[in-house]
Amino acid sequence: PAGTRRCHPPAPLLRMGANQPQRTDPRVTRHNPDDPIRILHLSDLHFRADRAWDADPVLRDLARFIAAEVRQGLVPDLVAITGDLAFSGKADEYRRDPGQPDDRPHCTAWDWLTDELWPALAPDPARPLPRERLLLVPGNHDADRRQVDLIARMAQQGLLAAADQDQIATVLADPNQGAVLFKRHAAYLAFYGAWLGTPQALPWWQRSIEIHGQRLHLAGLDSAWMACDDQDYGRLLLSHYQINQTVDVRAAAGADWRIALLHHPWDHLAPFDGSAARQTIHLHRDLVLRGHRHETEAFRVLSPDPARACLELAAGCVYDGSRYPNAFQWIELSADPPVGAAPGRDAPKRVRVHLRAWVQGAWQTDRNQPGCPDGHAEFDLDRPAAAPGKRPPPPADPRKYLEDLATDTGSIDIRGLVTGRPEAHRFPIAELYIELQATGTGAAAADQTGEARTHPRATLLREALVNPRLVIVGDPGCGKTTFLRWVAHCLAADRLGRDPGAAARRLGLDPGEAGPRLPLLIPIADWLDYIERTKAQKTGPTLPNGAAWLPAYLGARAGDANQALGTDDFRRLLDDGQALILLDGLDEAPDRLQRERAVRRIERLAQAWPRCPLVVTSRPAAYQDKAVLAGFTHTPSRPWTPPPSTASSPAGAAHSSPSARTGPPPTTGNWPPRSPPAGRSANSPATPSC
């Protein structure tokens, strides 16, 4: 009954040091030695009192569902929770204070694990799963923001500004300096220490364990020791120091399976830290389990160097609301020796992932993931990345694509002209285009120094293109679409040699390694429509919100236009960092849910191709709440407004000469307008299509 939940004391435990291997425990339920090693992978449970009325039914049913699957043979050897066990890192979210009776009808993390989940994990109650089989790492919701004081914030800003791994190691290795940063994890560490029966001084750990005759080396990483607010994207750290204490260690040598757990995706880490961390972890781990993304994901990392092959699995979110498609995973690890050979460490490694989801008020097998009609996916970790000596395909020739793009973006449709003739009115964009302005102080993600990237004055919108991740927010008719068309047109003309240097002269864009960037102009509504139609046909990329949908769409569009480019061609151009991605009209997604999915897909694009700049446009009303892009600079735009001397000309009717645009802009931020084109009344409204 509510208010009478018991907090059972920890059972007797096997004490183990950080570097000591754990041998087979006689209390563990015996399995068939041919069984795979099985991991129950959970993440993002978000225990909190004020949402217990909605969360408790989901979590109670989860324990019942898991118990039923255990009875059917899915018996776990390990339970991995990859972050966000609590919602705000407070002690009463993890465990009730025995000295403070609490009659509120809510379940803490300790209550649920002790009374509901753990009894469900073993078919024989006399042989429960030992508590040290819980593998736990912290997420940003396991950080108590109240403990991040001014000293901690100043220390974080200094570490990010210096971008020096030696300085980070000095701070983390010093107990006094480290304590300033680790205070946010105090309640989390107290909980995990009480659960294990061993005090936890640090929020990261490593250990070895033997299961079914195979040795596993496990590394628990803390990607949230810098988490402090809603602007954490791109400002978190793992650090070489932490990785060298957990991942790249002597204890991992000779392990049959090497597994790492962390909460955040790589793109949430500061660039100077994330890239090196990813490479090191992929080199020294077979499997990476993580959370944070509230959707199930799998990434198979194939490298020309087989030693760097790795599988990443994101569990999804156990609880983000009872009406949300919550998720979890069963992971099975198998190492089968060749026929007639004895088991050994050279046996091929395979991973099988069983997908589960909370749909319409019940937990069930998730058969809705593309490519997984039976609710599971399989991965062969020993599959080679490519045949030795195989030559890469010749580089794609985008000339036909660029010629078509230059033609499509070479003119502007003008409405409202009074001519007495029914034909459409199109004018060359090079003669008609007017510089747009970025106005006010744009809301922006913080940079590595903690300072916001903003535009404190009215500037030319093209100046905002220095931001590699940019959102242009503007009212209907302000010229957002026309601006993207102008950018695409200048880049296409430059790459084709029709207007050499146009990207630098007209847009202020420096060329990439292979010359001017390839513009990829994409109407978001058309992209989303392609995704939905392809998914309805049960084809296309496996992940519903993965980055692969962009080259798939571009390849299909180019194929229809006979442009001699395919999906693989666009992927190579993106991989080489040659493209500028221009996504137009986030507000034109059919509904709020589609818009939020589009945001997730765009964030995946930014993560998959970090060397390709990305620009998105949207109306203000659509760019809010969950439809806001993390890590992007947000720039408000406004249409051209004539100075007093040309006030008689209607807004949008004026245009600037090509020669005027080659020089520096006037201090007003607008190019001097010329007279209206022949055939148009000076008082007739004319609006570039937006």
Beta-strand percentage range:
15-25%
Q: Rg to the nearest angstrom?
A: 28 Å
Relative helix content: 25-40%
DSSP strand count: 24
Strand order of the largest sheet: 1-5-6-7-8-10-9
Features:
alpha/beta; seven-stranded mixed β-sheet; disordered N terminus
How would you describe the overall organization of this protein?
28% of the residues lie in helices and 18% in strands. With 690 residues, the protein is α/β, with parallel strands linked by helices. The chain has a seven-stranded mixed beta sheet. Strands 2, 3, 4, 11, 12, 13 and 14 form a seven-stranded mixed beta sheet that branches. Strands 18-17-23-19-22-21-20 form a seven-stranded mixed beta sheet. β5 and β6 form a beta hairpin. 43% of the residues are buried.
Topology:
Layout: E1 21-22, E2 37-42, H1 52-71, E3 78-82, H2 91-94, H3 109-120, E4 134-137, H4 150-162, H5 165-173, H6 175-182, H7 186-196, E5 205-211, E6 214-220, H8 240-246, E7 257-261, H9 271-284, E8 287-290, E9 297-301, E10 310-314, E11 327-335, E12 349-359, E13 362-365, E14 376-380, H10 399-408, E15 411-415, E16 426-428, H11 429-432, E17 437-438, E18 459-460, E19 469-473, H12 480-496, H13 502-507, E20 518-523, H14 524-536, H15 549-560, H16 567-575, E21 579-584, H17 592-608, E22 614-618, E23 633-638, H18 658-662, E24 687-688
Parallel strand pairs: 1-5, 2-3, 3-4, 6-7, 7-8, 8-10, 19-22, 19-23, 20-21, 21-22
Antiparallel strand pairs: 2-11, 5-6, 9-10, 11-12, 12-13, 12-14, 15-16, 15-24, 17-18, 17-23
Helix pairs in contact: 1-3, 10-12, 15-16
